[in-house]
Amino acid sequence: MYIGRFIVVGPGVGAYRVSSRSFPNRRIADRDGLLTVEPTPDAPETDNPYVSYNCLQVVSPPASDDEWVVVGNGSHVDPIAEKIELGYPARDALAEPLLALDYEKDDYNTPRIAGVVTDDTAHIGTVRDDALLVKAVDEPTLVATYEEDSPRAYDFDAASAADAAGAVYDADYEHAICAAAATIDGDGVSYAIDNGE
């Protein structure tokens, strides 16, 4: 089954996978802790605004040593991270940018999906052409751009960021391109990338 791009978030873990039929020549690059989806060197040129974006950021709320992770499938990841750095609670940091940017105005009205994770909490959100959904979750939860576009519990067990990235990359959904994940515990954030190589 093809469900497009998807995230899995739960307390202490956030993961994102790019799945694509239209733009397979992509990878995730590490830009000093900012993980970015970008075309591979051999990718054909495109002016599609939804091909490149930051997909995973580590941020800190003001006056805190805590680190939070933001994951998502597009340009909304940046303003969500900015809201957290301004002191917004996770729910509001998700809801405001998702509502403002709305679903992607492409041929499929592709939903925007995102999650915010701390070491002991997780929030997941999506904006579709018919709804804005943002909720706190206490177990691993998946939301995707197609077919699985409402958050649902997901059987997910990863001991490390590398395990989590590999698990979403290898998940039984079609057209895996690349994946990234982060785990958070008392020692901070660890993250990993799986470009399927």
TrEMBL record:
Spell out the protein name for this chain. Answer: IMP cyclohydrolase
Q: What class of enzyme is it?
A: hydrolase
Family named by the database record? Belongs to the archaeal IMP cyclohydrolase family.
InterPro entries documented for this protein = IMP_cyclohydrolase, IMP_cyclohydrolase-like, IMP_cyclohydrolase-like_sf
From the broadest rank down, the organism's phylogenetic lineage runs: Archaea, Methanobacteriati, Methanobacteriota, Stenosarchaea group, Halobacteria
One BP annotation, GO = 'de novo' IMP biosynthetic process
What reaction(s) does this enzyme catalyze? IMP + H2O = 5-formamido-1-(5-phospho-D-ribosyl)imidazole-4-carboxamide
Q: In which pathway does it act?
A: Purine metabolism; IMP biosynthesis via de novo pathway; IMP from 5-formamido-1-(5-phospho-D-ribosyl)imidazole-4-carboxamide: step 1/1
